[in-house]
Design goal:
Length: 457
């Protein structure tokens, strides 16, 4: 088999700033060892997130020039609406400035104290919006999805028996909706099978619970289904996407992922009453229902991106490039969450740094060292992001201690990824010298964005 190449040519470039180790040490200290607080220009390879960091295509930039900036009923909205409806089949398409805005609107309406929202695994902003409403976000991953070292085709799946048991336990009336995140981001970017989506929908239908998709990476998930699930090898990715959404009563999406844009999202729902409430809240907080916090040019770029993401040559390259990174790190002995996911490689900080306990945040230690060694910005997905406190102040650790290397779409070449491999391996080889960190300042929610850290003595 020949080398899988990037299915695009580079037309515009952006310079990268190089820094010395001493400079990075100073920058880390000034940022209180939180890479979110480091200016982007001081980062050599930025793997903090794949959200809003994609390179847009020539056709997307051309679409920006055609954007209709009318306040109401813009032509660009109708193109956007038509494309989203074509893929999702959902009745009401409500644009928002990004995915978390769609989540906030949705859970402001259906959430509240005493409510529960089950999911295969909530990611950070979804969990925060559920819990800000007063409801409780409940994760129900499968057993194999809880074990980073296990290799399985669909580790992102919902634990369907546990879902049904949970519904019986808390009562159907206390569950406003059930979600599945595709792919499962906090579970390692792992895909969800069509079979699992159908089974989850069946349980939701049985108990009269609306079923929603968190659809940020729907196309990557569909490609995994095509490659791994029996019966789908000869089905187009577009048809697989349409089947996935056919089981959903609604969806939230950050278009900053699989729509290949730098800003945008949507809430899509079938329920007329819920849609009316959502649009009313949208007008108050985001904007008129035909722009929802976005410029017309953003809506054009999203519509074009939703076409481009279905290119199977692109998806083959995308999944393979992430897999390449995972294979090289595994060969070097670096513990990662297996198998490689769709948009990122997750370093298993718990296995890499067993001498650092969860309360000293091994993932954060690894994140800081990757920047110190090679100017790479990653993100902790462990007890900093998902840890909670007992009433006495004791930390309740996250289930896994991971560091995510999220790969922006169409941004870096293989030589960039080879450099990342070298930096990760160098960091891994001196892992015994790494020490833990303590939090010296934090916000009550989503603390990982702004927390300040200090190295442990």
């Amino acid at each position: 088999m020949k080398t899988i190449i990037e299915p695009f040519k580079i037309k515009s470039v952006e310079p990268i700033k190089f820094t010395t180790r001493d400079e990075r040490e100073r920058i880390l200290k000034e940022a209180y060892y939180n890479v979110f607080l480091i200016p982007a220009e001081e980062v050599l390879i930025d793997l903090l997130t794949d959200s809003g960091t994609s390179a847009m295509s020539a056709d997307q930039w051309a679409g920006i020039m055609k954007g209709d900036e009318s306040y109401a009923g813009a032509r660009s909205f109708y193109r956007f609406e038509k494309k989203v409806r074509e893929l999702t089949g959902l009745k009401h398409i409500i644009p928002t400035h990004q995915g978390r805005a769609a989540e906030r609107i949705l859970f402001s309406i259906v959430g509240g104290k005493g409510k529960y929202v089950p999911n295969n695994s909530h990611f950070d902003t979804t969990r925060a919006n559920v819990e800000f409403s007063g409801a409780e976000a409940v994760d129900l991953p499968t057993e194999e999805g809880k074990r980073p070292e296990v290799i399985a085709d669909f580790k992102g799946n919902m634990d369907v028996p546990s879902l049904e048991a949970f519904i019986k336990k808390v009562g159907r009336e206390n569950i406003p909706l059930c979600m599945i995140t595709v792919t499962n981001n906090s579970g390692g970017g792992q895909p969800v099978s069509m079979k699992n989506i159908r089974e989850t929908k069946s349980v939701c239908t049985k108990y009269g619970i609306p079923f929603f998709l968190d659809a940020c990476r729907f196309a990557e998930n569909a490609y995994f289904i095509k490659k791994r699930e029996p019966g789908y090898a000869n089905i187009s990715v577009k048809q697989i996407v349409q089947e996935m959404f056919s089981y959903a009563d609604g969806a939230t999406m950050s278009a900053k992922k699989d729509a290949l844009v730098n800003m945008g999202g949507f809430l899509a729902i079938n329920d007329d009453k819920l849609a009316t409430s959502a649009r009313n809240l949208l007008i108050v907080t985001e904007g008129f229902p035909t722009y929802g916090g976005l410029a017309g040019r953003d809506l054009e770029a999203i519509a074009q991106g939703l076409d481009e993401i279905l290119d199977e040559h692109y998806l083959q390259y995308r999944i393979r490039s992430v897999e390449y990174l995972g294979e090289k790190l595994t060969k070097a002995g670096v513990a990662i969450l297996q198998p490689p996911g769709g948009h990122a490689i997750y370093l298993d900080a718990k296995r890499i740094l067993p001498h650092i306990p969860p309360g000293e945040y091994p993932g954060q230690s690894l994140v800081a060292e990757l920047y110190r060694v090679g100017g790479i910005r990653a993100v902790e997905i462990g007890s900093v992001m998902f840890g909670k406190y007992e009433s006495d102040g004791q930390l309740i650790p996250a289930r896994m201690e991971l560091v995510r290397l999220a790969i922006p779409r169409r941004v870096y070449t293989q030589s960039h990824i080879d450099y990342v491999i070298e930096v990760v391996v160098e960091t891994f080889e001196k892992r015994q010298a790494l020490k833990g960190y303590e939090i010296v300042e934090e916000a009550p929610m989503l603390r990982h964005f702004t927390a300040k850290f200090s190295p442990m003595n």
